[in-house]
Each structure stands twice: as structure tokens, then as C-alpha cells.
Amino acid sequence: MSDKSLIKFLEKAFGKADIATDGLNIAVKCPSCGRRGKKKLAIQVKTGQWHCWSCAIKGAKLSSLIKKYKSSFFEEFKKLFKDHQHAGDLSSVSVEKQHEEIHLPEGFLLLAAHLNSRDPDIRDTIAYCRRRGLTDRDMWYFKLGTCQSGQYRRRVIMPSFDSAGKLNYYAARTIDQTKYMKYLNAKVAKKSLIFNELNIDWSSEVTLVEGPFDLSKCNSNAVCILGSHLDETYTVFQEIVRNNTPVLLALDPDAADKAQKYAKLFSQYAINVRMLRHGKYSDVGEMPKSEFENCRLNAHTWNDTQRLHHLIRGIKSGTLV
Q1: Which of 95, 129, 228, 314 is the most exposed place for a label (fewest CB within 10 A)?
Q2: How far apart are the first and last CA of the chain?
Q3: What dihedral angle (degrees, nearest 10) is formed by the CA atoms of 71, 83, 225, 59?
Q4: How many CB atoms lie within 10 A of CB 308?
Q5: C-alpha to C-alpha distances, 134 to 112, 261, 279, nearest whole angstrom
């Protein structure tokens, strides 16, 4: 579709526009403040960026503008402009597909089914789980396991299952501080999988944490991103946008800059984001479940002002800006 067709559609949704002489920038009445009927919402047709000079709402994608403020036009927008470079349609974003079949390590056994085992390694592994606050129910729920021999001996193995209940990943954490490799994980592309999607309800707020073992401390509707990196090419990101799922970002405090970046990215797709404060804890995995629940209930809604405050706090004394 041409830029002229896009402008015609925007006028249909927002009313008559003032069009710049270059034909690439327009101004319409802001759907948020609509102050005195003046056309304060500026839209760059080529880039898809939008900004109100009155109330300061802004975004980088037309899809977020339409979805948030003119939702009755959203389906028509997607249909007419699905190929437009700034329509915000994630279907054009490539994702590395996973084809390799995953198998649990040989000799895998469920910890919850061996609570009375006499094997010293199994007993130590169960004791490690209990020290981390995991209950018998948690061991059943997350299907935690271990192996009696080989490289997965004295490791807690947490498997992951897709929406159809098929194994798609596993993470194995050592219980010994002296071991060189803390984790042994399935060798698959992280972008293409959603950890334990079997447990996710996309119609409710989803908590995003970094690692699999953080999941044992937070609410049940949660998913780990297997690290601290996330972008539009990740399947979990696309699923959140597709379902318009609200997000609670609970990344580790040392990933605060990334969390701000991801919150901004989600907001460009009109996804509501809340940010969790960890208090005295260094990550979710260290928090008692009751403490996490308290932090979750008190998490604040993210906006661009929050990001600005974060940047200001990060400026060192004496820094020239």
C-alpha cells in the first residue's frame, strides 16, 4: 500500500489531517488529550513514529497507536497494511525454527519419586532443592530430576515442555560450588522456544524472569527467557504481542538497563508493562515466595518517565551531559 493510502486510512481513524508539504508528516487530533481540538499528534508516515506535542504520548510503531487508541480500526489496519514496513506486524520477523528432537539425559529420574532414596547423591540433590525453598509439590510441578551417574550426576535437571506437552528444552544446575560448569543445558536455539509454555495462560499477565530456577519462586503464570536478552525475533516476545498479554518484568537488578529497554520495546506494541523491585535481594531465585508475591502486588506500571528517572539515577556525580 502507498503512503497516500496510509494517510487516507489515518484520516479515517483520527479525522482530517494537516499534511506537510513533503507529504511524509501529518498532524491529527490527539486521541489522548484532544486539547481544544488542535492537531497536536504528529505522525511520520515513513518511519511510523508518533508524538503528541501537548500530552507527550509517543511511540515508534503505528500498530501501537492504532491498537491502543483506535482499537476498532486495528483489524482493518492489519489487513490493509500487513506488508507496510512500520505496521508492527511481527509475522515478518524471522525466528530460528527448532527441528532437532530433544531427549532428557540418559538415566533421568524424578526427584519427587525418590524422596526416600538411599543414594547419597540423590539425597544431596534433594537436600539442595529444599535449601533453596523448593517443596515436594514444587519438585512434582516442575518435574525436577537428576541422574545417578555421568555428567548430570549431582545436578538438578528442570525440563521444559511446549504447549502440546512435548519436551523442548532442559536446564541442569550443579549442586556443588566446586564444579567448573554451573549449568549444562540442552543445545537448542533459545529464540525459538518458550520455556514450559504448557503452564502459560496468555490471557493473564505473564511474569518474565531470567533463569529456569527463578520460576520456582514466582507466581505460576511465568516464563524464563533463558538469559537476559530479548528482542522481537524471540518466540516468547511474539506470543506476548500476538495475545496482547500484559507483562511483569522481573529481571535481575544487574539487568536493569536491559529491562528498561525491553519495557520500551513492549510499549511500542501497546503492551502494558509493570516493573518488579527486588528490595534487598539480588535476584528472584533468592527471594522467599511470600516476598516475591508482595513485590509482585506492589510492582509499578512502566512508562517513559520511569525510564528517564532510571537514566538520571545512572548518571555519576560530576558527569557532563
Answers
A1: 314
A2: 42
A3: -50
A4: 11
A5: 11, 32, 21
Q: What pLDDT score was predicted for residue 189?
A: 87
Nine-digit cell string for 225:
527467557
d(CA 141, CA 135): 10
- Cα 289 to Cα 142: distance, rounded to the nearest angstrom: 15
Amino acid at residue number 2 = S
Question: 86 is written with which cell numbers?
Answer: 512500520
pLDDT in tens, 106-162: 999 999 999 999 999 999 999 999 999 999 999 999 999 999 999 999 999 999 999
CA distance 61 to 68: 11
Residue in this structure with the C-alpha cell 515466595, named with its chain if needed:
289
Band the pLDDT of 84: cuts 50, 70, 90: low
What cell was used for 290?
A: 511470600
The rounded radius of gyration (Å) of the Cα atoms in the chain is: 24
Select from 209, 207, 211 the least CA-distant residue to 183: 211
Distance CA 174, CA 152 (A): 8
Asked if residues 275 and 228 have their Cβ atoms less than 8 Å apart, the reply is: no
- At 266, phi and psi to the nearest 5? -60, -40
Chain centre distance of CA 309? 22
Cell 525475533 locates to 233
CA–CA separation, 189 and 95 (whole Å): 10
Q: Check: CB of residue 207 under 8 Å from CB of residue 236.
A: no
* C-alpha to C-alpha distance for 196 and 199, rounded to whole angstroms: 6
Cβ atoms within 10 Å, residue 256: 16
With 60 as the cut, is the pLDDT of residue 301 above it?
A: yes
